[in-house]
Design goal:
8 helices, 229 residues
Length: 229
């Protein structure tokens, strides 16, 4: 009798053709981008200017696509698997991260009847995201400069496409895909969580100070009233 791990492996392999197109186009993008990154380093393009260019690139090539993908996922009700997957924080986006889902979850997700144009949008979006992230991770652009503007949408987008990224990286012996997408996600996710933690601590501190001030005010009022009597 096959083990759950073996069943999962078979189901992933049966559906891997959906990912193969993503991987092929990803390789073409990386080859072109590496050459471009070398050119930018040699030409010493200003990091601030490059970051602004990339913000525009994101708006023109990624923003609208993610809205269409999210709508398609919602119509097919496969967001339930994405939400379940993202209940846990993921760092590597590989085969091991998929263990949070059952084999039937993965099978149903991968067999969802997405139209070909949506599959193409997913592939294009992942490759555009890799190009976008590579500029920051490689140091061509300032990784923190446009954080405040784009980090929320970027994090949301990577989490929306997280299962596809994991399945593309399901073979531990093969080349890993979307490494820059993952690296930038982890950087911005960590910053976001740290800042939210700081905000929450400040809220708790403010509540404590307000409670102390309120208690002191009550005590002062009681003293005044007792003196009047």
């Amino acid at each position: 009798m096959a083990t759950p791990s073996e069943v999962l492996n078979v189901q992933i392999l049966e559906n891997i053709s959906i990912i193969s197109n993503f991987i092929f186009s990803f390789i073409l993008v990386v080859v072109g981008v590496l050459g471009y990154i070398y050119y930018l380093k040699v030409s010493k393009v200003n990091k601030k200017e490059r970051s602004i260019e990339l913000a525009k690139f994101y708006k023109d090539n990624i923003l609208d696509k993610t809205g269409k993908i999210d709508k398609a996922f919602a119509n097919l009700q496969i967001n339930v698997y994405i939400n379940k997957f993202n209940k846990r924080r993921h760092h590597n986006f590989d085969y091991h991260d998929l263990s949070i889902l059952s084999s039937s979850d993965i099978n149903e997700f991968m067999n969802a009847p997405l139209q070909d144009d949506i599959k193409d949008l997913i592939s294009d979006t992942l490759n555009y995201l890799e190009y976008f992230a590579l500029n920051f991770v490689s140091g061509i652009a300032d990784i923190d400069l446009i954080y405040q503007v784009l980090h929320q949408h970027y994090i949301m987008t990577i989490e929306m496409l997280s299962i596809y990224i994991c399945i593309a990286n399901c073979d531990e012996d093969e080349f890993k895909y979307y490494t820059n997408v993952i690296a930038l996600y982890n950087r911005w996710k960590d910053i976001s969580l740290d800042r939210q933690r700081l905000i929450n601590e400040k809220k708790v501190d403010a509540i404590d100070k307000a409670r102390i001030a309120s208690q002191k005010a009550k005590e002062d009022i009681n003293k005044i009233l007792s003196n009047i009597k």
